[in-house]
Structure formats: structure tokens, C-alpha cells
Amino acid sequence: MPFYHKLGEIPHKRHTIFRKSNGELYYEQLFGTIGFDGMSTNMYHVHRPTQVKNILGKKDVAPRVSIKNNIQSYRLHGFKIKPEHDYLDSRKPVLTNSDCTIILAAPKESTASYFYKNADADEMIFIHRGSGKLRSHLGNLDFKYGDYLIIPRGTIYKIDFDTEDNRLFIVESHRPIYTPKRYRNWFGQLLEHAPFCERDIRRPYELETNDEKGSFLMKIKKQNELFDMEYATHPFDVVGYDGFNYPYALSIHDFEPITGRVHQPPPVHQTFETDAFVVCSFVPRLYDYHPQAIPAPYNHSNIDSDEVLYYVDGDFMSRNDIDAGHISLHPAGIPHGPHPGAAERSIGKEKTDELAVMVDTFKPLQLTEEAMAIADDSYYQSWLED
Ligand SMILES: [Fe+2]
């Protein structure tokens, strides 16, 4: 995240002597991305963070692709993904390409017995249902309905859920996830016309420092495999850190919509960017106020990006047949637009209460076996007139 954060105790100068009360040194670690060019955090461990005891095994978790080359629009019934006890088992990849994987998950239990690290990808976890606490080696964050959790690659974390009823929409991104550059000034500060600002971004506030030795299971995702690693020290043993690389939360309810006299294009909804896809938030807002305005979107050709809309809540203006938890996939190469009747129905309406998350990928997405199991195969014909 492009602003400075400090938690816990750190020495006055980087790379200098910093001792525990018993006289031993703390163990410094630079935690960064893009070599030494990206955002980084400098942290201090009670124990060496390198103490691997055993590599216990690995499991293939690659998305199982069913449709490789796709030009068909689909609707997926996301809530048909079955709840599962374990957090990692519950994560079902539905759409994937070489830049990102879109996952649906309904975990019932907190991650009690292991720590998790995604070594390949930043994770964006949108909380559709549920609440709890994201715990990491860089501190803890509370989350609830409507939160985006942005977890940089390499973050060691656990999730504590308050109840068994959780629904998550997750994007794993092989490119770093940032706030949109056009909303930031040359220092990185979010500008006045940005739909959210630093005040809306929640940083880790509570650092767990465990001085424990023993056996600690860490599951590390790398190159589509999940490695079980046994560590000799507790992974949450950081006494303090400072820097720019840490997990954070932003609520979709804190996204301030940008509206106009006539229909505003999707970039006004943009919330995050990578160089491989964008994420947009469609939130309750007043409709266009030109007296002749048609609030529903016009047909459009996303000729070079696949468009994924995840419907969260409210009555979505452009379609008649969409419920919470549905995903629509409108692939690159063909136009799409409002459902027959939706444009007429929108005329004269003053506001919408729709809530949705959109992911537009620049490379085509492949559909997995899990996606086809919850797909509505005739959706692509739903624009036909009688
Ligand atoms: Fe669209």
C-alpha cells in the first residue's frame, strides 16, 4: 500500500543493533516485492525466520480447466458452491488465465491448525458474507460484509471467522494489486477526486508477537502446488515493522460513487488496478440526471477484455434474472448489453441500490470444471427477442 505504516517496536535506524531484553539480537527481514524496487516492509523477528524443519509434502491445486478457448457468455450460480470446513479446501477456482484466478469459497471453519502463505500471488478477498479477523505476521485486521482484503504475496496469514456462514469472492493476482494510479499524485497520495482516500483504508492494528519454539505447519502455495512446510518457530513472532508492504482492508460501502448527467462509463467505478486486470465497485447511487438520460448501460464491445461481474446485493439494473452470488462472464470479442426491457425500465428512475464487484481481465479467461458445474448454459441466448 503506498503509504507508510509502523506497528510495534523498531530501532531508530535500519540495519543497526536492536536487542531483546536478554541482550540477544532481533532478526531483521526486508519483505518486499519486485526485487528491491517495489513496496517493502522492514520487520524484526524474535527468532530467525528461516528455520525450516521439514518439507512434508505437496498437493496439486492447479485449476482444472474445462473450457480453454471461450466466446460464450455464461452465468454462474456462485452460491451453489458447497460450504466446506477447511479454508483452503473451500477455495474453488472458477475462472483463470496466466495473470489471475477467480475463486469462490464458502469456508465454515477458521484456519486453526496451519498458517498459509501465497508465494505467487497477491490476494483480493471480497467478503460477501461473514465477519472475523485476518491475522498475519504483519498484524491483525477485523473484517465484515463488504470488505475488500488486499493481502500482498508472501504474507503469512490465518483467518478467524465468527460463524460458519461465510461467502468469499477471491482474486489471486500474479501482478501486484494497487489503487488506480490516475487517482494518486506524484507522492502516491490519493487525490481529492478519488472515490476513496487513505482514511477509508484500514491498516493492521494489532501485532501478535509469539516467542515460541516447536512445530508449526505452514502451507505455501507456489506454482499451483501447496507445499506443507514444518517450521521450528512461531511464524507470528514479529516485534515491530515499518514500511509500505502490508495487508489492508477497504469497505465497498466506503466507495463514493461518481455520477453524471448522462451514463458514466465503467472506469468511474474503478477501485483497484494491476497491469493485467482492473477491479470496479458498483455501489448504490443516484442515477443520471439529464432529463432525457437512459440510466441503464448501452451495449458495448469489450473487444479486448473479458468482463466478470459478481453480484452482491440489490436489484441489478441491467438484467432481470440476476441474484446475489451470481457471476456473469461476458467474454472479449463480442458485444453485450442490457437485458431486453432493462433500458426502457430504467428511464425516469432516480437511484439504484445495486452492489457488485467487476473484474475485467485483459487476457481471456478459461472456465474450470467447478465453473461448469454451476453454469447456466443457455445464458448466452438471453438477449434474444421473442
Ligand atoms: Fe459490460
TrEMBL record:
- Any idea which residues are catalytic in this one? H263 (proton acceptor)
The alphabetized UniProt keywords are:
Dioxygenase, Iron, Metal-binding, Oxidoreductase
- Per UniProt, Fe cation binds at H300, D306, H336
A single GO BP? tyrosine metabolic process
Gene Ontology cellular component?
Answer: cytoplasm
InterPro entries in the record:
HgmA_C (IPR046451), HgmA_N (IPR046452), Homogentis_dOase (IPR005708), RmlC-like_jellyroll (IPR014710), RmlC_Cupin_sf (IPR011051)
Tell me where in this chain the Homogentisate 1,2-dioxygenase N-terminal domain is found: 58-249
Q: Name one Pfam family in it.
A: HgmA_N
Q: Its family?
A: Belongs to the homogentisate dioxygenase family.
Q: What is this protein called?
A: Homogentisate 1,2-dioxygenase
